Amino acid sequence: GDGGGVQLNKPSIGFLSGESTTAAYVGQNPIAYYLFQEADTIQGTTYTDISLAGAKIGEQKADFLATATKSTFDWMIVNLGHNNILPDDDVASKIAALQDYIDTINANRKAGSVLILSTIPCALNRFKVRFPDPTTWAKMYASWLAYNEAIMGKGPTPITGVDVRTDILTTATNDGFDALPVIFDYGDGIHQNNVARKVEAAIYRDILN
Question: Which of 93, 96, 110, 186 has the fewest beta carbons closer than 10 A?
């Protein structure tokens, strides 16, 4: 992987931050459930997962700042933003909120640690069902595209200050039209089922190793 040599099969301290696509959600396990192997625990790998269903960027920032061990992590994974993308919001403010969170992490993190930022999962079908007016869901889809573009370091306001960027979680669970395929869909067009979460955890593990 390209995670700066941080390996899960040796003692390390990790951190995960996200929303319901990373946290547990209605019978679907959190990504962290599939990320670690028994050998990791035996060898001393531990982690803090502040991911929470329904969380917005500012709330995760506050939870990070309230984490007493925030300066001890060897690696950090952030996958966050769906709950900030709304039909009446300006995506630029959401990109700015994510940048502020990344800046906050950087101001507090351990020297030599690895910060991984992932694009948020596909949700086109969810947009269409929740906001059936074509103008509305098209605006949300455009915001999703622009937000993920910024995460990947592109567009007019690229996110800065991360060590590893990945869009493979989005591309690996994509039906080719930026929607979750049935095999990976919990059933609402946005939340991944446990099959998808296993795939995504394997991707993170590959990055970290």
Answer: 93
